[in-house]
Amino acid sequence: MKDIVYNLAFDFGASSGRLMLSKFDGEKIDVEEVYRFPNEPVKLGQSLYWDFLRLFHELKNGLKIASKRKIKISGIGIDTWGVDYGLLDKNDELISNPIHYRDQRTNGIMKKVEKVLPLEEIYNITGIQFMEFNTIFQLYCDLMRRPELLDNAKTLLFIPDLLNFYLTNDKYNEYTVASTSQMLDAEKRDWAIDLIKKLNIPESIFQKILMPGKIIGYLSKEIQEETGLSDIPVISVGSHDTASAVAGTPIENGSSAYLICGTWSLLGVESESPIINENTKKYNFTNEGGVEGFIRLLKNINGLWIIQQLKQSWNSNGIKIGFPGISQMASKAEHEEFIINPDDKLFIAPDDMAEAIKQYCVETGQGLPQDIGDIARAAYNGIVEQYKNCLNNLEDIIGRKIDTIHMVGGGIQDKFLCELTADVTGRKVITGPVEASIYGNVIVQLMALGYIKDLKEGRKIIKNYSELRK
Questions:
Q1: What whole-number distance in Å separates Cα of residue 324 and Cα of residue 333?
Q2: Which of 6, 208, 266, 412 lies in the 20 to 30 Å Cα band around 187?
């Protein structure tokens, strides 16, 4: 029997984070949850912040728990959401808690940027889908509203970069998460300096781009003393959680698309090079960085966050219901015809998601949804209809048919969602693994350490030992 290789994978989501321990015996990867913690944004005045200090504290708690296992850890990898960032001053002190991408400060900012720089020029260079919370628009907002922050900033680090820095004291911008900023040259896979200069954003704050599968550094002496761990390498995985999830999806051929089902739904294909043309502009597709230099040609769809917010809305109003209950009532809704557009601005950050859906249905002439089943069904219908539209547009872009959808992520535990996706899109749906982002995180670590040859081998391992369903 070969020696078992143990790795730690942190996956930070929009509502919670977790630490997973992986065990690789040369043939199979097993993962076990070691620690889970909430990720609750904080409203302070008019601004919505990530509680970064709490998140780093929880990261260290996870490392302390792992240390008590008394096993040899070969590496640590961290993946998180994209676009958001922290700024460090000349003393490497965090200037401000990172602002949440759902903060309202960027409302209307794209029109202001367009007066300085044509949006078409931005897209032609970056190939990134236009969303008001992209880093480029957040930074321009900082430039207008709180320029003193940028005046004092020496370093910009995206959330996974920031966590890695406080573990190792090494500063890089990892490629996959940097690509979500809409400031990376898609062809060169490096910073679009001319674009940055035109917007008067200080170019000096951006760090060297580090590709996935490289060692960032090693746990600092302070972290070793605090957690009880040794001098362990911290590895640049697909630091954007979608990049890790795509890496962990057992895609088989060019007629397959991936669908990451979580807070956001990410639907797309892998491409060896960026695809930036009139069709990708028209359909607002994005060219984000992937593992092994692949481009993730995809569309961001406002996904199960809507269902999460419905649950919160009903629970806040005294109706105790969980996700299985919502799914079941949606599947049995008396009125199956209600539908929303999940990407409508009404659903970005409403105070009450259930009321927002009611409002949308009335304003679009559908009538008033009466109960939980009708409201939930409107959300499910809207999400899955967007999947269908996205697939049709994707086929138009790449010029070939997509006959299979690989659905991965926590959302695939919702059987109704998977069945509805197959019914509405007319494609074969294969689900699994649930923990795609963790598997992707781990196989990139194993590649960096020389235990796995490449992404193809890693995906083969995942496929052979994961529970996949059609």
A1: 14
A2: 266
